[in-house]
């Protein structure tokens, strides 16, 4: 490259920088700001998760020590200030157990409904939904309990949903539907499941099928 060509390239570079330099600087600064913001958000999220974990462990220990009052305080704090963490949903399940054991079924229903609506993972939400449906069934509202089980994505909980549907149908004296539900539950259970005999017993308790 000749000196003239080098100067021409340099002039082009200067001209380009004059036209677009501010945009480049802005883009670099914006990218840096986004990166810093993302790192800060990540650090804050991790810290909140760690704080929630400590609080949940404390709640579990208090439950073990039968200190339900302090366990409730930790659980309510998790629901209030750490709802974005998975620990809030698990705390909601424990709060529901505290309420249920104390005879406060309305409180248990309220906490379970919170978990259904806000749990960060599907497994916790399914566990809450199934427990809530059983409490509603025990309260006598069979249609409401059955409606609560109308969930398309039951991944990993198909057997539990089918069994509970069977229990509800049996309570409604809809024995054919109950049999079908229990059979579906058996079908969904893992091979050699230790729980299969329980469902078979429920199925046998329905008596023989009526011939058509």
Task: Describe what you observe in this structure.
The longest helix is centred in the first third of the chain and has 62 residues, at 3-64. 79% of the residues lie in helices and 0% in strands. It has 9 helices and no strands. The chain folds into 2 domains: 24-120, no CATH class; 146-212, Methane Monooxygenase Hydroxylase, Chain G, domain 1 (Up-down Bundle), CATH 1.20.58. The protein has 212 residues and is mostly helical. The mean pLDDT is 86. Helix 1 (3-64) runs antiparallel to helix 2 (68-81), helix 4 packs antiparallel against helix 5 (122-138) and helix 5 packs parallel to helix 7.
Summary keywords:
mainly alpha, 212 residues
Number of domains: 2
Instruction: Determine Rg (CA atoms, Å).
Output: 29 Å
**Count of distinct strands:** 0
Q: What oligomeric state best describes the polypeptide chains here?
A: single chain
Fraction of helical residues: over 70%
Q: Assign an overall shape.
A: extended
Contiguous low-pLDDT stretches (5 residues minimum) are none
The span between the termini is 98 Å
Mean pLDDT: 86
Characterize the biggest β-sheet: none
- Which strand-content bin applies to the residues? under 5%
Give me the secondary-structure category: mainly alpha
Tally of helical runs: 9
The SSE string, one letter per element, is HHHHHHHHH
């Amino acid at each position: 490259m000749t000196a003239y060509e080098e100067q021409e390239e340099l002039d082009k570079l200067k001209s380009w920088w004059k036209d677009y330099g501010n945009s480049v600087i802005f883009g670099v600064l914006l990218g840096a700001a986004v990166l810093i913001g993302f790192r800060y958000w990540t650090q804050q999220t991790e810290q909140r998760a760690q704080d929630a974990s400590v609080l949940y462990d404390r709640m579990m220990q208090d439950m073990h020590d039968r200190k339900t009052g302090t366990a409730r305080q930790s659980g309510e704090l998790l629901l209030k200030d750490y709802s974005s963490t998975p620990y809030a949903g698990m705390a909601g399940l424990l709060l529901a157990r505290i309420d249920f054991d104390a005879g406060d079924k309305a409180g248990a229903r309220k906490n379970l409904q919170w978990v259904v609506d806000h749990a960060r993972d599907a497994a916790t939400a399914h566990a809450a939904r199934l427990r809530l449906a059983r409490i509603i069934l025990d309260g006598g509202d069979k249609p409401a309990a059955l409606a609560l089980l109308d969930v398309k994505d039951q991944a990993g909980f198909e057997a539990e949903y089918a069994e509970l549907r069977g229990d509800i149908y049996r309570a409604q004296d809809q024995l054919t539907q109950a049999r079908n539900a229990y059979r579906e539950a058996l079908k969904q259970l893992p091979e050699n499941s230790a729980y299969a005999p329980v469902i078979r017993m429920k199925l046998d308790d329905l008596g023989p099928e009526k011939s058509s």
